[in-house]
Structures are given as C-alpha cells and as structure tokens.
Design brief:
single chain, TIM Barrel, two-stranded antiparallel sheet, binds beta-D-fucopyranose
C-alpha cells in the first residue's frame, strides 16, 4: 500500500443537526436562526429550508446501519441547542436530549464512536432576539446548555467539539449576511467572533466536569491563502486573508491573543477590533484543549487592489479544477496547511473534521451513482494527509463531509456533498461509488 495509515487512525464521516435532522417542531424543539433565515425570501438560493432535510430525526437507525455497513469507526454529528434548551436559556427539554441519547446508544451498539459538536450554527432564535452572538449573554447562555448535554451524554460520548467554524458563524452570519441571521454589521461580527471563542473557553471545563476522560477540542475552517502573484500588494492581501480567516481564531486559542497586524488593519479603518474583549477573556479562550479540528475544502488565491499591482501574472486554479460548488480542488494546500499547523502550533493532535466535494452525480440507468470526481477528491486529500503524517504531523483522524447529501445552507439542496445519495422525495438512501470506495479504504487502512 502506497499510503498506509496506523491501526488507531480514526476513520469517520460528519453531518450537522440542521442539515439533516428535519423534524423542526418535534418534541418541543424551538425555532433556530436557520429556521427564520431559510424562511426569508431570497436567503437560500433554491428557496428551501431544513424543515424536512434527510428526516434523520426519525430515520437515524437507518443511517446508523449505513455507517456500520461502511465500517465507519466514528461519526461526527451536532446537537441542536434549540432541541435541548428551546428558549435559549432556562427550561431543558428532556425529549430533545432523549433523541441524542437514542442516537448515541445506537452508534455504540453499532461499534461507531460518537463525536459530538455542541454548536453547528443553529442558535435558538430567542437568543438572537436578545442580540445573538454579538452580545456577551449568548456566550454565557452556552454554558448551561453544554452542562445539560454533557450531564446526559457525558458518560458515553468521550469526544466533544465545542464549535464548528466560528469564522463562518461570525463572518457569514453577521458581516456578509450570507448565513443566518443575515446581519451585515462589521462591529457586531467582530464581537460575535469573540463571544464564540469565549463560549468555547467557558464550555471546556464544564465538558470535562461531566464527561470524565473526554477529549475536547474546537473545529476551525482553515483556508490557506496563496498570493496571486509575486507583487507586494498580493502578498499583503494573502497576509490579511490569513490573518482574518485563520490566525484570528488560531492565535487566541493557542494563547497568543488576537494577531496584532489584523488589529492594526482594523484600527486603520477606524474599527476597534477588540471592543468586546474584557480583562481575563483571553485566558479563558486559551484553555488547553486536547486536539484541534480542521475543516479543509479549498485554498484562497489572494489578489490585492488592482491599481499599480504589478506584475499581473495571476496564479491559475490548479490542474484539478473545481467542484460543482465552485471551490478549487487543491490537495497540496491541505498538506502545506497541516505542516504549518504542526510547526506554528506544535504538539497538538489534529483531526480533519471535514473534507469533501460537492458533485451533482446522481443515479445512472442502473441506479448506480458513479461519483468519480468525489473519489478522486477524497483520494487526493487522503494522500495529502498521509504525506503530512510522513513529515511528522500528528494527524490522528479524518471525517469525510458528508455521510449524506443534505441541506447545504445558503445553497439549499442544490449542492450534494454526500457519500450517500438522498432522494428527498422518498427519503431513500443510496451509497454512491465514493461510499464503497471509502469503505474499502477503511477496511484496508489506507490508500493504494
Ligand atoms: C462547512 C460546514 C458544513 C458544510 C460544509 C460543506 O463550512 O461546516 O456544515 O456545509 O462546509
């Protein structure tokens, strides 16, 4: 085998609550910002919502059986805060917790290790009504929610991820407005990012208290920036992108505070990026974690302002093209990212908590789904992980995004990331060729 992985390497797949569960009013679930946002005309490209999605809330047993069939060692899912604390604060809804209890028991019975994410973007709407992540109270409200979840599941779930992609939750939610709650307020976005990180720091000791021996981490979406040319302007654009996208989250988590160059960029535009930071917050955020979750899909080619930006020789997309969502396929950037993380933030076990490709391939005449480009994508990125490991990078596991085709946020159902095809009209699941391929990789422990 050309790219072997160790026997204890974690092979998984990932999903998130709003993207697959449906059943948005079942068992006392309260509304989330994604219910509200998706119902807003024009917010989701195909006008759909997660109201039904993959109906996983009712069909979880079928999905767990699929995981067993594929030989998954681990399953990363998220818990919906509005199922557990429908009002955002206050009363805990036992029926919501019962669902995750059943799911966890089914996973364990199938030999699949549960990895639970506590926040994958479905904030209870009542908390947004009180200001959302830009207000400190939301970070404080996260703590009793996490306590309720970990008290109930902490005896059986031993892998916890506090947040999924705080860059997306803050920037897309509060700066560009592409995601829920759809606000476009630069100062609020910075405050949101801080409170997301603060709530991570506040949650870690609570998780440890209720889940003895648990491994706890946070998942960041990290996107390396390549300057489009050798010009100074492009190098600076790459620095800025890396600063706001990657270092803004990595540095405080690893105890270095917010990057001073980015703070200075904001100050030059008259913005105090640290307005929400209170004494002691950075210590809370820097709480030691057990691992870093890395979500990687693509790189960013950074181009500074055009005027006087010479030379104009602009970096072309890599030879492997783009997936159907338009993201460049660039596995080499994943290898480089992992090597960089191990060098700049050493001694932290890394897990690829998401990686995958959107392709439209559906059933052929024989019913088979030949998603060749997804197989090639996954293979290339697993090879990159193997190469990083060979360079000494402590990558301990890989979760394909996603187990199922699902509600792809602002794209609705128009983008399919699943290893398993979902026919939304009948809720039939059909493993694609990529699922069979991945099962063979897992069985063999590597890529040939
Ligand atoms: C990530 C999200 C995940 C999914 C993939 C395609 O940013 O964490 O929910 O939408 O992108």
């Amino acid at each position: 085998m050309k790219y072997p992985f160790p026997a204890d390497f974690v092979w998984g797949a990932a999903t998130s609550s709003y993207q697959i569960e449906g059943a948005v009013t079942a068992d006392g679930r309260g509304p989330s910002i994604w219910d509200t946002f998706a119902a807003t005309p024009g917010a989701v490209r195909d006008g759909t919502t997660g109201a039904e999605a993959c109906d996983h809330y009712r069909r979880y047993a079928v999905d767990v059986a699929l995981m067993r069939e594929l030989g998954l060692g681990a399953y990363r899912f998220s818990i919906a805060w509005p199922r557990v604390v429908p009002g955002g604060t206050g009363r805990v809804e036992t029926r919501g917790l019962d669902f995750y209890d059943r799911l966890v028991d089914a996973l364990l019975a199938a030999g699949v290790t549960p990895w639970a994410t506590l926040y994958h973007w479905d904030l209870p709407q009542p908390l947004e009504d009180r200001g959302g992540w830009p207000v400190r109270g939301t970070a404080e409200a996260f703590v009793p929610y996490v306590e309720a979840v970990t008290r109930r599941l902490g005896d059986r779930v031993k892998h916890w991820i506090t947040h999924n992609e705080p860059w997306c939750a803050s920037t897309l939610g509060y700066l560009t407005g592409e995601h829920a709650p759809g606000r476009k307020e630069p100062a609020a976005a910075l405050a949101a990012a801080h409170h997301l990180l603060l709530s991570h720091g506040l949650a870690v000791p609570v998780i440890r208290a209720h889940s003895p021996g648990a491994k706890v981490g946070i998942t960041l979406n990290l996107t390396p920036a390549t300057p489009a040319s050798a010009s100074e302007a492009d190098a600076d654009a790459a620095r800025r992108f890396d600063g706001t996208f990657n270092r803004w989250f990595l540095d405080p988590i690893f105890g270095r505070g917010y990057p001073t160059d980015v703070v200075a960029d904001h100050a030059a535009e008259g913005v105090d990026a640290l307005a929400a930071v209170r004494p002691g917050d950075l210590d809370v955020i820097a709480v030691p974690a057990d691992f870093l979750g890395v979500n990687y899909y693509t790189r960013h080619v950074a181009r500074g302002p055009e005027a006087g930006n010479l030379p104009r020789v602009v970096e072309e997309p890599g030879p492997e093209g783009r997936t159907d969502i338009g993201w460049e396929v660039h596995p080499e950037s994943l290898r480089a990212l992992l090597v960089r993380l191990a060098r700049e933030y050493p001694a932290t076990p890394l897990f690829l908590t998401e990686n995958g490709a959107a392709t439209h391939d559906g059933p052929g005449a024989d019913g088979r789904i030949a998603d060749v480009r997804r197989v090639r994508y996954l293979e290339g990125h697993l090879m990159a992980v193997a190469e990083a490991r060979a360079q000494g990078v402590p990558v301990r596991g890989y979760f394909a995004w996603s187990l199922l085709d699902n509600f792809e946020w602002a794209w609705g159902y128009a983008q399919r990331f699943g290893l398993v095809w979902v026919d939304y009209a009948t809720q039939t699941r059909v493993p694609k060729d990529s699922a069979r391929w991945y099962a063979a990789v897992i069985a063999r422990g590597g890529v040939e």
